[in-house]
Amino acid sequence: MFIETVRLSDQAKGQLIKLKRKTKIENWNILCRWALCLSLSDPKIPSDSAFKSNSAVEMTWKIFGGEYSDLFEALMKERCHGDGIELTKDNLAKYFRLHLHRGITYLDNTKEISNIVGFLNIAL
């Protein structure tokens, strides 16, 4: 396990609150899983922007990944390897956070997501 606690920025918290309201998906971790996958599907490396994990929203890695936590870790390792990023615990944690926050922003900026149907259309 490369990260124990997933912490979100205030901006991500606000974006997730809007997504929860639109989609009626109540759990942060479900939305975050989709956000991570969406970002990982983008071939560009996320920008190395500084963000502060300053919101009260946090979850353990096991809550984030649930029964798929090993799969999400493997996806992060594969993506970092493919991007030429050294597979250290710090790098994996950093790029996980960058991908997660980029994915949350992607979901928030997607105009088609006005309800759960729009969310599912994006997911499929």
List the SSEs and their pairings.
Layout: E1 5-7, H1 10-23, H2 28-40, E2 58-60, H3 61-65, H4 69-82, H5 89-109, H6 116-123
Antiparallel strand pairs: 1-2
Helix pairs in contact: 1-5, 2-5
Question: Short summary of the structure?
Answer:
The protein is mainly alpha-helical and 124 residues long.
What does this structure look like?
With 124 residues, this protein is mainly alpha-helical. It has one domain (5-43, 52-123). The chain has six helices and two strands; from the N terminus they run E-H-H-E-H-H-H-H. The chain has helices spanning 10-23, 28-40, 61-65, 69-82, 89-109, 116-123, and strands at residues 5-7, 58-60. A two-stranded antiparallel ribbon has the order 1-2. The model has no long low-confidence stretch (mean pLDDT 91).
| Mass-distribution shape | globular
Beta percentage is under 5%
Query: Poorly predicted ranges (pLDDT <50, ≥5 residues)?
Result: none
Radius of gyration: 14 Å
> What does the oligomeric state look like here?
single chain
Quantity of strands, as a count: 2
Features:
124 residues, mainly alpha, two-stranded antiparallel sheet, 6 helices, 2 strands
